[in-house]
Amino acid sequence: MHDELITALRGGLPEGAVLTDPDVMAAYSHDMASFSEAGAPAAVVLATCREDVQHVMRVATALKVPVVPQGARTGLSGGANASENCIVLSLVKMDRILEIDPVDRIAVVEPGVINAVLSRAVAEHGLAYPPDPSSWEQCTIGGNIGTGAGGLCCVKYGVTAEYVLGLEVVLADGRLLSTGRRTAKGVAGYDLTRLFVGSEGTLGVVVKAVLALKPAPAPQLAMVAEFPSAAAAGAAVCAIMESGHVPSLLELMDGTTIRAVNAMAKMGLPETTEAMLLAAFDTADPAADLAAVGALCTAAGATDVVPAEDAAESELLLQARRLSLTALETLTSATMIDDVCVPRGKLGEMLDGVAKIADRFDLTIGVCAHAGDGNTHPVVCFDAHDPDESRRARESFDEIMALGLALGGTITGEHGVGLLKKDWLARELGPTGVELQRGVKAVFDPLGLLNPGKLF
Length: 456
Ligand SMILES: Cc1cc2nc3c(=O)[nH]c(=O)nc-3n(C[C@H](O)[C@H](O)[C@H](O)COP(=O)(O)OP(=O)(O)OC[C@H]3O[C@@H](n4cnc5c(N)ncnc54)[C@H](O)[C@@H]3O)c2cc1C
Hints:
15 helices; 5-stranded antiparallel beta sheet; binds flavin-adenine dinucleotide
């Protein structure tokens, strides 16, 4: 079977597209999530065009071999992990920006385009592609669509789903499906485009995307506010949003995260504070907006409010926030990164609850958050070589999700379900929700070949 598969794949693909060296394949077998098992692939295919993808899916259907679509493998839920004897279908070499149209304000791209590369390319036309995950220098548009990625500026500009207008998708049997539009409006039929966003490679392989662009905003000006408690920072977030301000960024780093970032990158952030809010505006008068928001922070209990001098200093602060997850990962031999999103009004409770969970399980849990969205990233730090600590890490991770659901939130705001949160998806959706979602999957992928074992 293995030889038959490799021969069939090579029969319709360019030379060098099919990798079978076990060491090389091992590198493609998993994303960046902990506690998510990965199988050994039978082959890794580096697709270079839509026809390559169609060939892979036809072979997979004929031989009933599972296929795992893959971007840059920066995912944090195991969604891109290989299953045993699967074909890993990497899209990173399909990395052409096919079109940037300033009149319709769209970009047409292949799935392997890196998020930051697209952002820089559209900036040359005075345009912006807003969704900006912290991993934007590595992650791909295909992966962003697969996970429904968010990012720092989503509090003002929204998440990936709001920017995907149309898709070309190769279905499980190799047929090509076009969804959506490239026009400013369009409501023809069910919104299959939206269905694919966040489907984690389980419904089809995205080979082209039409993305909406915005006029490039003015450079943002940022400030930091230090708080003596997470609850006070949470109260400040509520006050800012309630007052009608529209920050282009409203992020939070707790004391553990600040110290980790300082240790890694010598950023000189204030180490004694319990929680730091980072707010930015790209409005006509950002200094005035920051002054108003600074006053709200002070009223909520901030001990210090420091505006950045200019756009360059603001960018440095953003970089500090972008480094948060990576810096927390250096604290111990392993981490589990959670992604619970709660209503903004519950942010303080969520943060306090996470601190109590850390105490109860005797673990370090650093938190950074897209605070303006209520999207927290508690990072459970533990020693993977210590079985008891690993068990406590897993249990605390689960308790954080239970807390999020109890507060009216969701188990994942942007990282997706993958393998890591399968059990929890069922709890969030309930039996009817799961049944209908399985039905949708069966329509697109009746043989269950696309990224099996993920989501459900
Ligand atoms: C340091 C760090 C910071 C991060 N910050 C953020 C953040 O701020 N916001 C955020 O949302 N995420 C963040 N992430 C998580 C991750 O970067 C995102 O989930 C990203 O969207 C994954 O993109 P990728 O190209 O690496 O995809 P992968 O990890 O390779 O794949 C992700 C999922 O998409 C599917 N997929 C990939 N390509 C395709 C395709 N062409 N067709 C169909 N399905 C496909 C895969 O099967 C998988 O299920 C961060 C990760 C790291 C390591």
